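[Discussion] Sanity-checking designs against the backbone

I'm trying to build intuition for which residues belong where. Below is a structure token string of 134 positions. I'd appreciate it if someone posts a full sequence so I can compare it with mine line by line.
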């Protein structure tokens, strides 16, 4: 008789657990990325980390407004649909090993882009080249 009571008590406990709705805990994970201040470079900066200063001739004249660089990547101040030319021969990812200016207070662009020859178009935000025009 005692064993039947234990079995019934166990079944009652199991039924109670099955009937009581389980409470769910909600969790929210938020990741913030602080890119720090915009790099200050006289001729602009590459649009990928570590955002080193790009030499004069990398960016075409459309990347400058009033002589100042409009920005690239996370700090872009260009319109959402902006596309501009670059000369990727001045990009270390394409083999460039020449001099680059140091970070510091940006100076107005001196306007040496008169003979600029762009070979790639970029959107200024993602750092990816636009598809070639056919």
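Best answer:
Here's mine. Compare freely.
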């Amino acid at each position: 008789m005692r064993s039947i009571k234990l079995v019934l008590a166990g079944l009652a406990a199991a039924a109670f657990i099955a009937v009581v709705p389980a409470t769910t805990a909600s969790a929210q994970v938020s990741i913030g990325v602080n890119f720090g201040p915009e790099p200050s470079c006289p001729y602009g900066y590459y649009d990928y980390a570590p955002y080193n200063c790009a030499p004069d001739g990398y960016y075409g004249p459309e990347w400058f407004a009033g002589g100042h660089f409009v920005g690239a990547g996370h700090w872009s101040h260009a319109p959402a649909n902006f596309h501009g030319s670059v000369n990727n021969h001045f990009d270390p990812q394409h083999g460039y090993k020449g001099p680059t200016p140091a970070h510091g207070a940006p100076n107005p662009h001196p306007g040496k882009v008169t003979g600029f020859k762009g070979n790639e178009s970029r959107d200024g935000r993602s750092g990816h080249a636009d598809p070639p025009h056919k």
